[in-house]
Amino acid sequence: MEGWIQVLIIVGIYCVIVLAVGVFSRDKGKMSLENYFVGNRSIGPFVAYFTYVATFHSSFAFLGAAGKLYSSGIDFFATMTSCIVSPMMIYLIGRPVWHLGKKYGYMTQGDLLGDYYQSKALRTVVALVSLVFLIPYLQAQIIGGGHIFESVTGGRIPFTWGCIILYAVIIGYILLGGFKAVAWTDTIQGIMMIVLVWLAGGVILGKVEGTLDWTNLMQTMADKYGDRLLIPVEKWPIFMTTFLSLFGISIYPPSFQRFYAVKNPKTLKWLAVTSPVYLIFFYVPIMIVAFLGVIHMPGVNAPDQILPLMLSKYTTPMLTGLVMAGALAATMSSADSQLHAASSIFTIDLFKPFSRKPVSDQKSLLVGRVTIVVIALIALLLSQFSSSLIMSISAFALGGCLQVLPSLIGAIYWKRGTKAGALAGLIAGVAVVLLTQFVWKTPFGISISSGAWGLLVNALTFVAVSLLTPKPDPAQVEKFHDYLAAVNREQDEAKAAKRAARA
Fold first, then answer.
1. Which of 156, 358, 462, 494 is most buried, taking the most CB atoms under 10 A from its CB?
2. Domains of the chain: residue spans and CATH
3. What is the secondary structure of 391-410 as a DSSP string?
């Protein structure tokens, strides 16, 4: 049996398993809106952990990160570091969001912000912004899936058909199982990813170097490609602001959705502490493979393909198939979360508020499912017209999603923030992201990321307009801030009681 057929069979078996997990993880009986979009707020620590880390380990993790390390070297470290520290955002907003969602039934960012600022316009803009930036991120996943199918079959399944296969598998299990299907398939995918990436790195290192000790590899890189292990001084501004932009990982809609879905706030603390461990362990073997590619496979025109190329050259078809299934898992675990989040945003923040008549859960679910198909189709079509690096698309999308942060921080921590300030800041931030990404790429000669420029302008506008406009309704402020203060007091009293009992 030819090697590419073996690889394709393994990938095909994986797709069938994922579909089966999605089908069997769904709740039996009539599906409610809360069940479909946030899993009845019942996700435990184990599943929460893997669905969280797997959600933002997308195509860029296997393909884009390897490509960036191959083409640019260690300057990818800034981006990787941001992924490690971004879960700190969970401490700032995760617990308050969970409590507010539990009490008031929120399921999206727009749900919470629209209610706090008493602004239908803000809710609508938040929803539209989220959808606008989710689509290119989803596009990046479909591009990655298409490349995977094309690589593992030696072009026998072309890029376009690979994208279509990925599209069909993902929407299949999402339509059937909703959030729980997404969470459980993410769990399987998250476990696969970390196991297989280490297996790939170890096998390739052992094959090329004759040992699992990668000291010699790093020494060779230092001797022959020393520039790949340094970050030029002139590039530090863009790397550090990219670092800032990628804090959006923890608040972009799919991650944010998981704040609502977990059983209790203790699970969120667990995520904040443990998720960086997964990230550290994930990128080490990716770096090893990329640097081995620099030495033994120089001059690759498509850097995103370095991992599949190294696998096909130095491993067996079976291992290549397994690792590519892991890469496909990374792609699916992000794409399914993005699609599901986009569906919830459209249904809850756009369809229901603008409906002239009360809408039943069943009708809303139908709209949500149709939205999944339509948005996936849009991303599928866009994927056919982009040659950008997956990493670049992903960073841009996260920078856009980050623009919700100032108004969100305001709703939770700043009583003086107003709806006019939140709306003005969000619009200004998004406008600046688009301007600095596509038109004025180095404002004032300063080369920093578009997401960072947007966040700076956004925050300044939010604060300035809030201070220049009338104070928000005290009753609405109390609804949020007094409730969160009461929750904090209860928790402090409970901790004090436990300490007293031990004494």
1. 462
2. 3-352+359-390 (1.20.1730.10)
3. HHHHHHHHHHHGGGHHHHHH
The answer to whether 18 and 181 have CB atoms below 8 angstroms apart is: no
Angstrom CA distances, 34 to 31, 55, 242, 251, 475, stand at 8, 20, 35, 20, 27
CA atoms within 13 Å, Cβ hemisphere of 223: 7
CA distances (Å), origin 175, targets 181, 199, 369: 9, 33, 6
The whole-angstrom separation of Cα 259 and Cα 43 is: 10
Question: Smallest Cα–Cα separation from 241: which of 432, 484, 498?
Answer: 432
Task: Determine the Cα–Cα distance for residues 194 and 187; give it in Å rounded to an integer.
Answer: 11
Q: Which tens digits make up the pLDDT trace of 474-487?
A: 888 888 888 888 88
Helix (H, G, I), strand (E, B) or coil at 56: coil
d(CA 115, CA 193): 39
Beta bridge partners of 262: 43
Residue type, 433: V
pLDDT digits (tens, 9 = 90+) for 69-79: 888 777 666 55
For CA atoms 427, 433, 435, 440, give the dihedral sign: positive
In 3D space, the residue among 121, 82, 64, 127 whose CA is nearest the CA of residue 330 turns out to be 64
Taking the model in full, what pTM does it have? 0.86
pLDDT band with cut points at 50, 70 and 90 for residue 239: low
Can you tell me the distance from the alpha carbon of 11 to that of 17, in angstroms, rounded to the nearest whole number?
10
Q: Which helix (H) or strand (E) holds 379?
A: helix 361-383
φ, ψ for residue 194, nearest 5 deg: -70, -35
Please give the Cα distance from 253 to 398 (Å, whole number): 10
Taking the CA atoms of 217, 223, 225 and 228 in sequence, report the sign of the dihedral they define: positive
**Which amino acid, 234?**
E
